[in-house]
């Protein structure tokens, strides 16, 4: 989850002077999509108007059209992992953000997910993470899905990790995941099992709090 939040929030840097009229921040000369008004987004997320302004400037600078397709998303995300191949993990992450399955991420999609990851409750954060891992959206995480996610993470981190990863590291990671999470040993992890297991793990709970004050 740290990789998700840390890289995405770096896109919110302000590059232009602020304007007096908040609504002006939502005007674009060439747009394919116009986001919801500030008041509506403030009600739907855990961000105030000022924070939404900063987030929108960063989003607009990267995506002047008002929406991001998967190829552009991969290009942006890969900048933060120059020694690895982030394309597969970015694909899974893109699908998690694209909740409407439209093939693009709009500002509303971006800020809603970021609100959960940064300011959501523990349950909301874990539900979002579960949905990221549940690749086929059937309500369960199976070993094949988890192996795909773990391999994507290792590919993203590249060959320069320390200590050097063994070739069987992904399988060991997945086996440990299921040993901890699959409470009834039926070969899949449900949302309830995932949330319960994460709440029992102090390291996971600490990691969920790392980025609460990042904006």
TrEMBL record:
GO terms for molecular function: calcium ion binding; potassium channel activity. InterPro entries: EF-hand-dom_pair, EF_Hand_1_Ca_BS, EF_hand_dom, Recoverin. GO terms for cellular component: monoatomic ion channel complex; plasma membrane. Residues 85-120, 121-156, 169-204 form the EF-hand domain. Residues 1-22 are annotated as: Disordered. Its main location: membrane. Keywords: Calcium, Cell membrane, Ion channel, Ion transport, Membrane, Metal-binding, Potassium, Potassium channel, Potassium transport, Repeat, Transport, Voltage-gated channel. Belongs to the recoverin family. This is EF-hand domain-containing protein. It comes from Oryzias latipes (Japanese rice fish). The gene is kcnip1.
């Amino acid at each position: 989850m740290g990789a998700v939040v840390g890289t995405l929030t770096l896109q919110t840097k302000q590059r232009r002077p602020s304007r007096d009229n908040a609504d002006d921040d939502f005007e674009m000369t060439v747009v394919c999509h116009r986001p919801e008004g500030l008041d509506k987004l403030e009600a739907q997320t855990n961000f105030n108007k000022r924070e939404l302004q900063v987030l929108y400037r960063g989003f607009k600078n990267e995506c002047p059209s008002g929406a991001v397709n998967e190829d552009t998303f991969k290009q942006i995300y890969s900048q933060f992992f120059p020694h690895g191949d982030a394309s597969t993990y970015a694909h899974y992450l893109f699908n998690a953000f694209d909740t409407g399955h439209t093939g693009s991420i709009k500002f509303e999609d971006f800020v809603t997910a970021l609100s959960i990851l940064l300011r959501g409750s523990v349950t909301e954060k874990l539900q979002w993470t579960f949905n990221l891992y549940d690749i086929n959206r059937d309500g369960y995480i199976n070993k094949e899905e988890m192996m795909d996610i773990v391999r994507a993470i290792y590919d993203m981190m590249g060959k320069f990790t320390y200590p050097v990863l063994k070739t069987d590291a992904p399988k060991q990671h997945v086996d440990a995941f299921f040993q901890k999470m699959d409470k009834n040993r039926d070969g899949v992890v449900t949302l309830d099992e995932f949330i319960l297991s994460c709440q029992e793990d102090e390291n996971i709970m600490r990691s969920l709090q790392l980025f609460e004050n990042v904006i």
